[in-house]
Design brief:
The structure holds two protein chains of two kinds. Chain A is mostly helical. In chain A, helix 2 crosses helix 5, helix 6 packs across helix 10 and helix 8 packs antiparallel against helix 10. Chain A is globular, with a radius of gyration of 21 Å. By secondary structure, chain B is mainly beta. Chain B is globular and about 65 Å long. The chains are: A mainly alpha, B mainly beta. Chains A and B meet through helix 1, helix 2 and helix 4 of A and helix 4, strand 4 and strand 5 of B.
């Protein structure tokens, strides 16, 4: 212990010098030499989970998400085209210096993670009715309101396709929030969802989200 | 942003030599006037990550951290890019004590000493300003440091006017690394810091369980919540120097062990502006420890932890500055704390609770000359807060320190606040006493403070 403090500065200096080249575990968002997969593990993981399975519904699951969709969203955050609250609050800054190669690498990383079903959901017995309504809307739409079936774009298993995102197993609260963003704002422009959600009511949004959040 | 130093720290700070300087207040005031009302108008860390303050601070409450904010800290403040590592913060307001003259008279009757200078009651003032040097240094190293000017920390020799005082505040230079092992995150690091628990990421730790900072000076501010009992390191002086090492396993288990000594020689800057003779520890092995279990599920997160301190500070009252074995005290603290957060837009709900047992053994000199004997103090505090949309919030706290008439203090603090933009906060804090050390009618010291706070 006598030497504990005597050498503290030397230790810090040594660690500093040794740390300057820690490219494999860097959290530097302005260094184009840092691999996107490294940033995914060192930075994105803090909210979205190291395997893309996030804990909090504030942050979407990214595991198994469509790679093209992730690239598209990161580019939209970087260019400030996506303006819903997670943009200015979290993602604009984090994505501002990412290179195209890093964005593609991050997207590839999360697209290739395995989605893990959550165990903290409301018991099925309490949401059976909502689940069935959500299932009907997802598979058949609401013809009387000219709302098409969601599965036409997102696929029968909600795995998504290219820039149409995977929705299966997504957090219910996140899905509901995004449906309201589509319906009530112009924060996510250039998407058919603005039109599609126009006549959905809040309960229908919740029903769809319950159904999707329970999909494997 | 640790202005909530323990009572002992504040009193000894008043004896420190004066470094009166208004420059910090001037610069801060100017910058605050120039603060643009956009989400980009945030301090150094937010500029470093490009994120909004609420990414790291729960509901925009400072200094309470979100799960992400905790990881940002534990990974050494290294997420993001290097930017200008400077920020400023200031707070002020108007404090009113219910019957300050009666409080003063009660103190005179019971202790033969009244308030040093019962000024500032119902007067608006800019009290506190801080300069932060904070940011990413390398891929593994980051710094959080703070220098604070307290405009009302002291009374002049004539006992007529307040004097300002600029001192070192928080200092936390840390090296950290994060590994992924079989899909599980493993964070470990080393922190060189000047205050036991300042390195802790939860806000029930001694250094961080606090409200918006206010002056620790005499007068009306003496009865603000910041001067009520809080769990603390129990060290009697100001700031020290310490080296701690920590690890955080898979967002679940946290452990930290640190060793502290006097901030002398090369590390003297860590106790900048304070009286060095008031903050002397025996040797290098004054121990701090912390263990916590953290669990996150859905929008919820819960921490249950324990921490403690075992140290030997020297009597500053005897003017001892050398290794006189008859002049060192014994400080041994142990406590448990818990924090629960519910975070889902637009709601932020937090419960914090701390219970601490503080054991104090006087030095041989102190026991011989003053007749002081070993003592045990129990401090507890619980706080509930709710913030809506990171704009409007309310909190309620209960504090309790046991003991006889000369030390027992109990009461509640109620606060409402509003954040018009993320880096400006205005609020009303009211503190109600049911017991107050050496005061016959505690409710006479009930205080209300209308404050503003800003950072850039």
């Amino acid at each position: 212990m006598t030497h504990f403090f005597k050498y503290s500065w030397s230790l810090c200096l040594a660690l500093s010098l040794g740390a300057c080249s820690n490219i494999e575990r860097s959290r530097d968002l302005s260094n184009p030499r840092v691999a996107g997969a490294t940033l995914a593990q060192q930075v994105c993981s803090t909210c979205h989970g190291a395997t893309g399975n996030s804990i909090s519904p504030q942050f979407p699951n990214l595991a198994g998400q469509q790679e093209a969709y992730l690239v598209n969203q990161l580019q939209n955050f970087k260019g400030h085209q996506r303006m819903d609250p997670p943009g200015p609050e979290y993602m604009w800054g984090l994505s501002r210096r990412l290179t195209n190669a890093q964005i593609e690498d991050i997207a590839h990383y999360f697209a290739n993670q395995v989605h893990v079903a959550r165990t903290d959901q409301t018991p099925m017995s309490k949401t059976e009715q909502e689940y069935q309504i959500g299932l009907n809307i997802y598979t058949q739409g609401i013809p009387e309101k000219s709302i098409p079936a969601c599965q036409l774009c997102h696929g029968p298993h909600a795995k998504g396709l290219a820039t149409f995102p995977r929705l299966a197993g997504q957090h219910k609260d996140y899905l509901v929030r995004q449906l309201h963003v589509f319906q009530e704002t112009e924060f996510r422009p250039n998407t058919p969802m603005t039109q599609i959600t126009h006549q959905l009511d809040a309960q229908q949004m919740s029903d769809i989200a319950i159904y999707l959040s329970r999909m494997p | 942003m640790n202005m909530s130093l323990p009572l002992e720290s504040k009193s000894s700070a008043q004896s420190s030599h004066n470094l009166t300087s208004g420059w910090l207040l001037s610069i801060t005031s100017t910058l605050l006037v120039l603060t643009p009302s956009s989400s980009q108008a945030v301090p150094a860390f937010a500029r470093q990550t490009g994120q909004n303050c609420i990414a790291c601070h729960a509901g925009g409450q400072f200094p309470e951290l979100t799960p992400y904010g905790r990881l940002f800290k534990l990974t050494g403040y290294t997420i993001g890019e290097r930017t200008l590592p400077l920020s400023v913060m200031a707070s002020g307001g108007l404090t009113s004590v219910s019957k300050i003259a009666a409080v003063n008279q009660s103190l005179v009757n019971n202790t033969s000493t009244g308030l040093d200078l019962p000024l500032k009651n119902k007067q608006t003032s800019l009290d506190i300003a801080s300069l932060f040097i904070a940011g990413k240094v390398t891929d593994n190293i980051g710094l959080f440091s703070q220098i604070t000017h307290d405009r009302y920390s002291e009374v002049d020799d004539q006992g007529l006017n307040n004097q300002g005082h600029t001192t070192g505040d928080n200092f936390d230079l840390r090296w950290a690394d994060q590994w992924l092992l079989s899909g599980r995150e493993f964070i470990y690091g080393v922190s060189l810091n000047n205050n036991p628990s300042v390195s802790d990421p939860w806000n029930t730790s001694w250094a961080w369980m606090q409200y918006v900072p206010s002056s620790s000076g005499p007068g009306a501010n003496a009865y603000l919540d910041a001067n009520t009992p809080y769990a603390s390191s129990g060290l009697p002086g100001d700031l020290y120097s310490g080296l701690s090492t920590y690890l955080f396993w898979n967002k679940s288990y946290y452990g930290e062990i640190g060793f502290y000594r006097s901030a002398s020689r090369l590390l003297h800057f860590m106790n900048f502006g304070n009286d060095p003779n008031a903050s002397i520890l025996q040797g290098n092995s004054n121990r701090y420890w912390r263990f916590a279990y953290n669990h996150e599920w859905g929008s919820n997160n819960l921490m249950v932890g324990t921490s403690g301190m075992a140290a030997h500070p020297y009597d500053s009252a005897n003017g001892v500055s050398s290794s006189d074995a008859l002049s060192y005290q014994g400080v041994k603290n142990v406590g448990v704390d818990t924090q629960y957060q519910y975070l889902l837009d637009p709601h932020t709900f937090t419960v914090q609770a701390v219970v601490q047992k503080q054991n104090f053994t006087p030095s041989v000199w102190d026991a011989t000359l003053n007749g002081n004997t070993p003592s045990t103090t129990r401090v507890s505090r619980v706080k509930f807060s709710y913030v809506h949309a990171a704009r409007n919030g309310v909190s309620f706290a209960n504090f309790n320190q046991n003991g006889g008439f000369a030390s027992a203090t109990q009461g509640n603090t109620l606060e409402v606040f509003h954040l018009p933009v993320q880096n400006i906060r205005i609020g009303l804090q009211m503190t109600f006493y049911s017991k107050l050390a050496n005061i016959d009618s505690p409710s006479n010291a009930n205080s209300a403070r209308l404050y503003f706070w800003g950072a850039y």
